């Protein structure tokens, strides 16, 4: 395969000299997609706007799973209308699931938006921006099928020590509350070799942690007929030299199989962490949701995981107030939460999403009832999270130092990061200790709160720090951003995506 260099100089690229800002509202897949949008813009000659600098292009990448997503998008667009009046050259682009859902409605509601693009063609963003600027009119391009797999696009990663790797897009399930299948389409799986190639490229670039993404990772392999493909993928990724941490999201309990548990337990790089969406503890509600499992099966999965991985931290998603949910149904959910002992839970109040079967169901639960149940659930889960976190006081945890995890780090003289099981840990570090994002601290937990752990040292020397390849990559990236020379093999801010063989039509 021959790869040719582009003939255009940076000055000739459409984005030359123009700055951009990407705002992400939504899930981890949205964050993954935003990195690809940023990479595509940089490849087209744009540069990221500095803090406090007004950007020439503002891209909003938003999800559509919750009703609040609509409100947040249109509220943000309302605020941007004034900015655009003040800066006529400003371009506003809206992408992601909500753009896929609302399409031209966005321009109708907010005519000052310049570009609307969907989940299937995010790589078209630079072209659409240039076309809109040239034609002086809004460009709306929504494809109904995937144009280019996102991982082949240029990428600007958020950090050097970790990366998102999409193993599939879309979903074949028919959950009655969910609009993802209509926005992301049917499941499309990447070949294992492509995924492992991307992981190897990330590791070569300094990453020591990857998170495997998919709407349902446990159905990975459906396109090429291998029901155990995901477990095999975990084992293969665990053999990549230099990769220390592997995480994944989001499995579906109906498709979760014991071979994945075995792969988790037997592959050291796979972290003792499992996100297993419950949605409801009521069997009647699960049936109405079309979730294809019941509470007994769900709790059985958790039991088998803990048999093989006793220290696993299990997190979940729960929806309160699904149509027809009774107080008895809600109590079933509360009972499952007590038995499951989740480390944490993402809790949601059900909201009607037009176009889903649940939106047309009778017996919609009154808002005030949903709110009251929601508050009881949150109080219980906070209690359970705190109790589980307290069990870790006095134990040692390996904390991968991150950026942006601790909002009060400067005032508390701590650094923050994630333990092996995904828990957030704030670590006290002596001021004279040079600890970089990507380095690993062996810390002893001294206190616990419902949402995080605290590890303050008892000696002036502090906790042991292991300097890592990821920390070295962070150093090089910092030097690059300051214009300092770096090694020829150092990580670049933007990767060119994964090469693919062109298929002639």
Protein architecture, described:
There is one protein chain. Helix 8 packs parallel to helix 9 and helix 9 (258-266) packs parallel to helix 11. The protein has 505 residues and is of the alpha/beta class. The longest helix has 24 residues, at 367-390. Strands 20-21-18-17-16-19-22 form a seven-stranded mixed beta sheet. Strands 2-1-3-4-5-6 form a six-stranded parallel beta sheet, with helices on both faces. A three-stranded parallel beta sheet has the order 8-11-12, with helices on both faces. The protein folds into three domains: 10-141, 3-Layer(aba) Sandwich (Rossmann fold); 155-390, pyruvate-formate lyase- activating enzyme; 396-481, OB fold (Dihydrolipoamide Acetyltransferase, E2P), CATH 2.40.50. It is globular, with a radius of gyration of 23 Å. The protein is 34% helix and 19% strand. The chain is built from 15 helices and 23 strands. Strand 17 and strand 18 form a beta hairpin.
What value does the average pLDDT take? Answer: 87
Beta strand %: 15-25%
Number of separate domains: 3
For the biggest sheet, the summary is: 7 strands, mixed
- Oligomeric nature of the chains: single chain
**Helical residues, percent:** 25-40%
Query: Looking at CATH, which topology of the largest domain would you report?
Result: pyruvate-formate lyase- activating enzyme
Output the number of helix runs: 15
The CATH level-2 architecture of the largest domain is identified as Alpha-Beta Horseshoe
End-to-end Cα distance: 18 Å
Q: CATH superfamily of the largest domain, called what? A: tm_1862 like domain
């Amino acid at each position: 395969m021959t790869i040719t260099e582009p003939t255009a100089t940076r000055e000739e690229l459409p984005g030359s000299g123009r700055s951009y800002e990407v705002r992400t509202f939504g899930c981890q897949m949205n964050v993954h997609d935003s990195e690809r949008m940023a990479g595509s813009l940089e490849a087209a000659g744009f540069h990221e706007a500095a803090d406090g600098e007004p950007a020439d292009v503002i891209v909003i990448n938003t999800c559509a799973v919750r009703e609040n997503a609509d409100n947040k998008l249109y509220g943000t667009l309302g605020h941007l209308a004034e900015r655009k009046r003040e800066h006529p050259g400003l371009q506003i682009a809206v992408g992601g699931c909500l753009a896929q859902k609302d399409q031209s409605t966005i321009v109708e509601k907010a005519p000052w938006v310049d570009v609307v693009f969907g989940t299937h063609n995010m790589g078209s963003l630079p072209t659409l921006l240039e076309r809109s600027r040239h034609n002086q009119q809004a460009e709306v391009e929504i494809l109904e099928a995937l144009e280019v797999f996102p991982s082949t696009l240029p990428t600007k990663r958020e950090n050097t020590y970790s990366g998102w790797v999409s193993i599939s897009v879309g979903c074949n399930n028919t959950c009655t509350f969910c609009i993802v299948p209509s926005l992301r389409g049917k499941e499309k799986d990447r070949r294992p070799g492509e995924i492992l190639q991307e992981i190897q490229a990330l590791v070569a670039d300094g990453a020591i942690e990857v998170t495997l993404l998919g709407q349902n990772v446990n159905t990975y392999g459906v396109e090429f007929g291998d029901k155990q493909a995901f477990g095999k993928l975990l084992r293969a990724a665990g053999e990549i030299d230099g990769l220390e941490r592997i995480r994944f999201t989001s499995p579906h309990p109906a498709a979760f199989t014991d071979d994945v548990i075995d792969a988790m337990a037997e592959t050291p790089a796979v972290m003792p962490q499992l996100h297993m969406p419950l949605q409801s503890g009521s069997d009647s509600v699960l049936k109405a949701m079309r979730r294809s499992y019941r509470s007994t099966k769900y709790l059985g999965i958790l039991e088998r995981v803990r048999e093989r991985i006793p220290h696993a931290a299990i997190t979940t998603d729960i929806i309160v107030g699904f149509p027809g949910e009774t107080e008895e149904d809600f109590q079933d959910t509360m009972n499952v939460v007590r038995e499951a002992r989740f480390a944490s839970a993402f809790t949601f109040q059900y909201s009607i999403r037009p176009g889903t079967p649940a939106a047309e169901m009778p017996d919609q639960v009154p808002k005030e009832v949903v709110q009251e149940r929601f508050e009881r659930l949150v109080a219980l889960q906070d209690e359970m999270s705190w109790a589980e976190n307290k069990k870790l006081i006095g134990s040692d945890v390996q904390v991968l130092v991150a950026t942006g995890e601790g909002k009060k780090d400067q005032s508390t003289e701590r650094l923050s990061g994630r333990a092996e099981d995904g828990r957030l840990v704030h670590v006290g570090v002596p001021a004279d200790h040079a600890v970089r994002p990507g380095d690993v601290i062996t810390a002893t937990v001294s206190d616990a709160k419902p949402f995080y752990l605290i590890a303050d040292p008892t000696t002036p020397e502090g906790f042991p720090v292991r300097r890592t390849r990821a920390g070295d990559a962070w150093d090089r990236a910092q030097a690059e951003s300051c214009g300092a020379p770096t090694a020829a093999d150092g990580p670049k801010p933007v990767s060119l995506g994964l090469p693919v063989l062109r298929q002639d039509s």
